[in-house]
Amino acid sequence: MILSTFLPTLVVLLRVSCVNTHQVPLAESTESKSTPPKPAADFHPTYDGPTWEKKYGSQYDLSYTGPLSFSHLPYERCLDNASLSYDIAILGLPFDTAVTYRSGARFGPFAIRSGSRRQHSQRGYTLSWADNPYTHGERILDCGDVPVNPFDNALAVDQMEVAYSTLLARPATRSNTEPVTRLLAKDGVEHPRIISLGGDHTIVLPILRSLHRVYGPISVIHFDAHLDTWATYPGQTSEQARVTHGTFFYLAKEEGLLAQNNIHAGIRCKMTGIADMVNDETVGFQAITADDLDDIGSGEIINKIKKRIGDSPVYLSLDIDVIGMKSVFVNKFLSFPLIDPGLAPATGTPEPGGWTTRELKRIIRGLAGLNFVGADIVEVAPAYDHADITGIAAADLVHDFLSLFLAKSPPQSRHARVDDEL
Ligand SMILES: *[C@@H]1O[C@H](CO)[C@@H](O)[C@H](O)[C@H]1NC(C)=O
């Protein structure tokens, strides 16, 4: 009874006091703007100890601080500055408007850079490579992202081609030293190599157009759960609608961009039938399936890829969905496979039963010494990630790509190295 009588009064009082306290500082701040307080004549700083710089040195970045670039590399807007040169450029291509299922790979470049924050040139050595890719004297830059149009795919594909061609045409920093791409390029000039961060897989079409102009027909090593050599999807009634993340290799073949000795690794997707494999061969691919790893092992997979590619100029395209999701069985009586969020869940078209990150890394190491002219990692869509697992895996694979480009041959196994030393 008493409470119900006093409550309305209390509310009114509280409201009035809120209005008052809110108004007072506002009025004061207006006044203080017109007449700023002057420091007293005997003003002394409240801190007269050593400055940060004197006591601790530079404002260096920790793994989790500072501006975001790939592995804390210098970040440059390379498209804006024609006098920038590099040997290897990291380039974001945030395009994701040609996917058949989950979109979101436009955030891939951000997720991969974020996943790379614990990587640094000064801690770039790994036992598995016996190498630090940052010690070869190559200039490696993060060239930023291409501002790809998200509304008009024809425009976006052209923007990607123009940006890639612009950066590919720059003279490599080490152009007068040991030749790498000069021996492969039609113009006999040393071109830099670009590692692209996708983006959905469609980005490979404009990339192949650019590379073809410099090197002629390109051989492709394609790590993926899917073929991406399909001619069409149902309902594609316009020319532009043919350009998708599952058809770009078909279109590249149509345009004469591809060599005939291409190879997939990690295939395990569902198909319309065996006719898809017949078409795949026509496009110029051989396929290594996910199960081949159990049947023939990583050594034989590496041999097959190397034999297929030979000394052709080769482009490496890695769809993060090549990495697997574990199938987990509840128990022996319940036979449904449950899908565990696995090793790289943040992707647009996930397929259970792929390779582990460790298995994939081992196969990639075995390919060192081939004539790589570029590489990408695509289809990282971080909105579907858990604990950044996919971004971290992708960033680690890009670190492998750097050693892959720079090492002259695959590293010996550590056991062989230890035996040599004894
Ligand atoms: C462009 O890059 C060069 C070489 O690193 C640098 O000296 C110059 O300041 C840059 N120009 C601009 C406008 O950023």
From TrEMBL:
Source superkingdom: Eukaryota
Single GO MF annotation: metal ion binding
Residues annotated as transmembrane: none
PROSITE patterns: ARGINASE_2
Region entry Disordered, spans: 25-46
Record flagged with keyword Signal: yes
Gene Ontology BP term (one): putrescine biosynthetic process from arginine, via agmatine
Entry keyword set: Hydrolase, Metal-binding, Signal
Signal peptide start-end: 1-21
Protein name listed in UniProt: Arginase deacetylase
Organism: Crepidotus variabilis
Species lineage: Eukaryota, Fungi, Dikarya, Basidiomycota, Agaricomycotina
